[in-house]
Amino acid sequence: MLNMSQPTLSKHIISFEKELRLSLFERTGSAMRLTEAGNALLPFAYKILDAQSMFYEEARRIKSEAPARLSVTGLTDETVVMALLGRFITSAESEYGTGFIQVRSCHHKRPIDFVKAGSIDVAFDYFEPSELDDDTVGAVIVGRCPWAAIVDAGHPFANRASIDIEDLRHETLVRIEGAHVSEAWRFIERACLLNGFAPKTRRRYSMRLTDLLTLSSTIGNDVLIAGVNFVKRIEAGLPSSCRVIELTGEATSFPLSALYHIGNLNPALDRFIDFMEADLAEREHC
């Protein structure tokens, strides 16, 4: 009941008696009974235990009535995610108000790592829920982000309205590596393999959006694949020598999922998961 061994308990009692400078127990062999002083103090001990119980009960009540918070990170500026969060805020406004969602930066780390560490409620990233290999992490797919190709104005594709992924068979693709695009490449590679070829690549490391803009200005004969929403956000900063082309074909989109920790007891998270699952069911029905 006390979650400690008999020797440990005895040490605590002796230490307490020394602190009080009173003998609380009479010891006869292995038996113990309260002294006169112990009996006199016993009612106060019960009051202390009752007060402790009330203290923790009140702490739990305060915690349960604390303002709702839902922390999110990752690809929160994707159009699909912004629309989803907007609809959720509207649905939960009567209970939570409007300022309960907190958007946090990933600081060049993988969004899923924040979920696993329990430091974030929801992380949005490119993931197929069926591919998660961690039993502590759940996922709900919230949408798909179609691709576009960025090429130099001198590239043979530059004057085309769209290209098929099959057209990339003999092209060199820019493989960007960095925290904010950590999961993107594997979907690009998979799409190429599904279409019967392994992509030729040139690796570039990127930690900031400005790195991508610099890369675009020196893209040469290579092809950079990115999500359409992402391209729209950086399009104003792309050099005039670049062209953005629609990319079609099998599996040419990123699956965008909301990742969360299964053991997270945040009631706002529970409500958001229910909201996302209902939203997914409605989209699948349509």
Q: Could you please describe the fold and organization of this structure?
A:
The chain is an alpha/beta fold and 286 residues long. The chain folds into three domains: 6-64, Winged helix-like DNA-binding domain superfamily/Winged helix DNA-binding domain (Arc Repressor Mutant, subunit A); 70-141 and 256-285, 3-Layer(aba) Sandwich (D-Maltodextrin-Binding Protein, domain 2), CATH 3.40.190.10; 146-254, D-Maltodextrin-Binding Protein, domain 2. It contains eight helices and twelve strands. The chain has helices at residues 6-20, 36-64, 79-96, 111-117, 184-194, 209-217, 228-234, 267-285, and strands at residues 25-28, 31-34, 70-74, 101-103, 122-126, 137-152, 162-164, 172-177, 200-205, 224-227, 242-248, 253-261. Strands 3, 4, 5, 6, 7, 10, 11 and 12 form an eight-stranded mixed beta sheet that branches. The radius of gyration is 30 Å and the shape is elongated. The model has no long low-confidence stretch (mean pLDDT 88).
